[in-house]
Amino acid sequence: MRVGQIIDGMGPGGAQKLLVQLVQQALEHGIEMVVVTLAHARSSAVDELERLGVRLVEFPSRRLFSPARLWRLARFVRNERFDVVQCHLTYANILGPLAGRLAGVPVVATLRSTSQHQTRAVRLRGHLEHLVLDRLACQVVAVGPAVARAHQPYLRSRRITVIVRPTPLPACLDDRERAGLRAGLVGDPARPIVVAVGRLSPEKGYDDLLAAFLTVHRRHPAAALIIAGSGDPHELAGRIGAGGLEKDVKLLGDRRDVPRLLAASDLFVMASHWEGLPSAVGEAMAAGLPVVATAVGDVPWLLGDAAGLLVPPHQPEALAAALIELLDDPPRRAAMGQAARSLVAGLHSPAAWFDDHLAVYRRAMGARAEAAP
């Protein structure tokens, strides 16, 4: 089986991590994959694809609807003789099914977010994505049940299949290594460390997180907040300086050692305004961290009742109260961390997860074969 994977871009992000994991499993199953990106990008995900020996092809354009790009993409899909194509993120979910229809190749679309399409431009792209998927995608996959529920009303002729991504359990750090990493991050290894992971974009709610941490710092002046994520740090750095938190909040940029950062920390926080099933939360749980997060997307489903505390989005006061509650109670943090790791360990294995994808690919191929004249 030859599978094409089309994605908006290969910058840092959960969709890119998901794609790398798919490719790794495909190689173990003897299935060939080619990755197509619709934008130029360089990230650790690209480095990993190169290490795996996977071909990466770029189809950039200044506009979503470039007839020249669409035609080149369709010709590429046809010439590569893919058995099936899978798409990830909005632009790919729009262009991929169009190219697949022109090339005569079945397409599987992947939905990752419960975004409510805040701006007019994003709202229009969302409507267009739903229209294309409903008419042209052979199969549609969602990364979690809340994502499926958010999109299913707009896809009247396509039933969404939920395939929850597994999160491998990382190796634990020994005490000496953990203390050394903590000292390098925040100076004193005895300081409680709260960690956030995610790109520096407005929907991740970092403004809310910094407002909350100002309150937390008054109650726990020794606590430190570290933020790992790509993006322009200047606005956040200005807010950190205005709050007098330069020694207490560290912007680490895009890090390739996130599992180690998580293992060295005490508490994970996520202040997102919307999400699907965020990979960062699953990775934090796998590292044995209790979680304080906004109740968005599939986060409540993932955490259950024992692995952390949920708060409404856009409410820094509630976020601060939840962080203080767990910083006040180390034994409760430890119990929640153990519960979090156990919950993640109970999800499907990577091999079973990929088998679910293979079943979707085969259904898509069968549906296209039945529709052929």
What does this structure look like?
The structure is a single chain. This protein has 373 residues and is an alpha/beta fold. It folds into 2 domains: 2-166 and 349-371, Glycogen Phosphorylase B (Rossmann fold); 175-345, Glycogen Phosphorylase B (Rossmann fold). The chain has 15 helices and 13 strands. The strands form 2 sheets. It has a 7-stranded parallel beta sheet with strand order 3-2-1-4-5-6-7, sandwiched between helices. A 6-stranded parallel beta sheet has the order 10-9-8-11-12-13, with helices on both faces. Strand 4 (84-88), helix 4 (90-103) and strand 5 form a beta-alpha-beta unit. Helix 4 packs parallel to helix 5. The relative contact order is 0.12.
Number of strands: 13
Instruction: Kindly estimate the percentage of residues that lie in beta strands according to DSSP.
Output: 15-25%
Can you identify the CATH superfamily of the largest domain?
Glycogen Phosphorylase B
| CATH topology assignment of the largest domain | Rossmann fold
Count of structural domains: 2
Residue-averaged pLDDT, rounded? 92
What's the level 1 CATH class of the largest domain? Alpha Beta
Shape: globular
Strand neighbour order, sheet with most strands: 3-2-1-4-5-6-7
Q: What fraction, in percent, of the residue positions are helical?
A: 40-55%
CATH architecture of the largest domain: 3-Layer(aba) Sandwich
**In angstroms, what separates the terminal alpha carbons?**
23 Å
Briefly note the structural class of the backbone: alpha/beta
